[in-house]
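Notes taken during the Thursday session

The instructor put the following on the board and asked us to keep it in front of us for the whole hour. The protein is Putative cytochrome P450. We were told not to look anything up and to reason only from what is written here. First, the residues (193 in total):
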Amino acid sequence: MAEMINEPKILHKAIHELDNVVGKERLVQESDLANLNYIKACVKEAFRLHPVAPFNLPHVTTADSNVAGYFIPKGSHVIVSRLGLGRNPRVWDDALTFNPDNHMNNDKEVVLTDNSLHTFLFSTGRRGCPGMLLGSTITTMLLARLVQGFAWELPSNEQHDVDLKENLHDLAKARPLSVIAKPRLPLHLYNTS
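Then, after some discussion, the predicted structure tokens were revealed:
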């Protein structure tokens, strides 16, 4: 959300997609997700720039291997830098800029659970994350509901952009996101009980 609030054009494009696919007379449902490629691209881009953890869990090689000209002996512990992959300027144009169009594929469906090593959202292989589909679906639904349901703005006493600096000890934002959410759908859609 913070990245999208900093980039109003991206936020408006996501709102436009939701209004066209879902409309304003009902809340987005899981069955709508297949048609919400831009929303899924926003989630995938957020995972790319702001992974849940800087590294994956360590793996141990079961045989001597050569990877990109490097010899890795059997029994070596190997970790992958999620930050390094997601922010690699040799893979991503303007690697530190939030750009959901990085994941749009000529009208093909955006897939959050692919195993591309350009973004390492979840563990992969035999011991991959069993909650990958559930986690990505819940995250996408949450973003879609927040974008569909509310107009977002910074408080008048805040600076012009959301501060995206991260904590030194983890990847969480250093300062909490402080925004104002105003309903943008008919009031009967908001469950107040």
